[in-house]
Write a sequence for this structure.
């Protein structure tokens, strides 16, 4: 138990569906992150939020839309995904942006049909 | 551009010390060495980090060479639960520096 929870743990969706991934951290951290881990590829940083403001977007397609309503919650809204978007989506938090001791959630395993 | 080089896989007998090497010959003066591990189907877990001195915590020890061009993560008494992919990451600890994960070392603990 890292103090970072993610729901759902598994998600199967069609290419025309809209779904959202949720992340919650109970650590009082100010920075939150979304990562993508595809099969046989390293983790890729997608988005960084610091104090609820997006500070980095690593050229992620617009079909992925993050939202950070407060410092404890982070969402990833998904729409019109492609099969190649199937991956493990990981959320992480850290005390501040740039502090690299990050705490990761268990991830959401996403399958796009 | 990979800042670190790690062997793709290693085996270690249960109960023995697991020594995982990492080369980072281009490390700069303000960059730290971080170690994370990822057990199958879980999120990565922070293990330890250091700048130039050796570090130890309840999970592991980190030995950094004097020239800082390489380091070794030591798990003193490996258990089956230590089977995981271990990532060595070099990054500055400020501002917009981020963790960049490579392919790591797949460590298998043999009963």
């Amino acid at each position: 138990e890292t103090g970072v929870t993610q729901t759902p743990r598994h998600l199967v969706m069609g290419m025309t569906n809209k779904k959202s991934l949720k992340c919650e951290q109970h650590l009082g951290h100010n920075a939150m992150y979304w990562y993508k881990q595809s099969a046989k590829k390293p983790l890729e940083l997608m988005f960084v939020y610091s104090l609820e403001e997006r500070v980095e977007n690593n050229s992620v397609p617009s079909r992925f839309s993050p939202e950070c309503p407060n410092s404890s919650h982070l969402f990833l809204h998904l729409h019109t995904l492609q099969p190649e978007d199937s991956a493990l989506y990981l959320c992480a938090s850290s005390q501040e942006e740039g502090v690299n001791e990050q705490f990761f959630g268990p991830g959401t395993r996403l399958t796009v049909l | 551009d990979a800042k670190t080089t790690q062997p793709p896989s290693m085996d270690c007998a249960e109960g023995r010390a697991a020594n995982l090497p990492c080369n980072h010959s281009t490390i700069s003066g303000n960059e730290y060495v971080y170690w994370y591990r990822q057990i199958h189907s879980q999120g990565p877990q922070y293990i330890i980090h250091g700048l130039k001195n050796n570090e130890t915590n309840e999970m592991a020890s980190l030995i950094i060479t004097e020239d800082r061009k390489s380091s070794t993560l030591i798990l003193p008494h490996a258990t089956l639960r230590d089977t995981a992919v271990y990532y060595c990451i070099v990054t500055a600890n400020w501002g917009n520096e981020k963790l960049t994960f490579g392919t790591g070392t797949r460590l298998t603990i043999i009963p």
Q: What stands out?
A: Chain B touches chain A through 23 residues (CB under 8 Å).
